[in-house]
Amino acid sequence: MSKNVIARIEDLSHEDWLKLRQKGIGGSDAAAVCGLNRWRGPLDIYLDKTAETIAEKDTEAMYWGRIMEPVLREEFRKRTGLKVETVPYMLCYKEYPFMLANIDGIVHEADGAVSLLEIKTANGFAAKDWESGLPQEYYIQLQHYLAVCDLPKAYIAVLIGGNEFRYEEVHRDTETIQTIIAMEANFWNNHVLPQTPPPADATSDKAISALYPKSNGTSIILPSEADQLIANIEDCKNLEDQLKTAKAEAENRLKAIMKDAECGKTPAGYSVRWKSSSTSRLDTTKLKAEHPDLVAQYTKATAYRRFTITAPKEDK
């Protein structure tokens, strides 16, 4: 086996567990480090690992995920007939000790083989993420765990929307594991240890704001790379405008076809609804004019940095 036990989870507080996770890359970090997480990127994980204080808060979703874990582990056992054991340890890869694993269970197969079990809960809004199979973030997480634990197969069990239980088998993918190890090693050795932030990506909004929350009033000369980035931004804006215009035209032509009808169905099976509705909005202009003291009482100041780009002035 390639794993080492580095701590017994039951002996740790939640805060101590979070601090321990700072000492390496966990399964839930793996997809972000590899640039395959839709919500977080390498820069977010870098800030987590190098922060002096633990910023992560125990959310309701995290709390109920832990509460439901033994229930879903038992449900998996009932549905598969397989023996499942808990693993109350934080593990690491012997060869790559920065690779950590905190797995939800070990499954004993009928033929004597051993697999690992990962348990998830997902709200109803996340149901669409599972329609085409296992979300890529969880696939990378399982391959990370299979590497650390040196196992050939994993199961993932998920409760969706509180009332839909399902599970899937995921087999070890050696090529993917080699890529994960290489990317995690690069991230850990070339960014976390020397405390050199990785490049920003499309998911880095919060991380960039956390790194540089306030401007200091100075002015600098930007490198030539900035001109290329601005050119990319302008190209994207032009493309967005073109797509927005094309979308508006298609929607208006469709509305013209529907006329007064509220619903319509296409030969291909699409359903279109153009329904009359009304909404009530707060008249803030009138409220500010007639009750300025009340507005001031319920107005909250928010600090942020406004990002703008101004084109160079043309010579006359």
* Number of E-state strands: 10
| Helical content band | 40-55%
Protein structure class: alpha+beta
What characteristic shape results from the CA principal axes?
A: globular
The CATH architecture assignment of the domain at 3-210 turns out to be: Alpha-Beta Complex
**Main sheet: which strands, in order across?**
2-5-6-7-8
Total DSSP helices = 10
What is the C-level CATH assignment of the domain at 3-210? Alpha Beta
How would you state the average pLDDT, rounded? 90
- Strand proportion, as a percent range, falls in 15-25%
The H/E string reads EHHHHEEEEEHEEHHHEEHH
How would you characterize the overall build of this protein?
With 316 residues, this protein is α+β, with helices and mostly antiparallel strands. The protein has a domain at 3-210: Lambda Exonuclease, Chain A (Alpha-Beta Complex), CATH 3.90.320. The chain is built from 10 helices and 10 strands. The chain has helices spanning 14-21, 27-33, 42-50, 60-80, 136-149, 174-192, 205-211, 224-258, 284-290, 292-297, and strands spanning 3-8, 83-85, 89-93, 100-101, 105-108, 114-122, 153-160, 164-171, 263-265, 271-273. The strands form 3 sheets. The chain has a 5-stranded mixed beta sheet. The chain has a 3-stranded antiparallel beta sheet with strand order 1-3-4, covered by helices on one side. Strands 9-10 form a two-stranded antiparallel sheet. A hairpin with a 6-residue loop joins strand 3 and strand 4. Helix 2 (27-33) crosses helix 5 and helix 5 (136-149) crosses helix 6 (174-192). The mean pLDDT is 90.
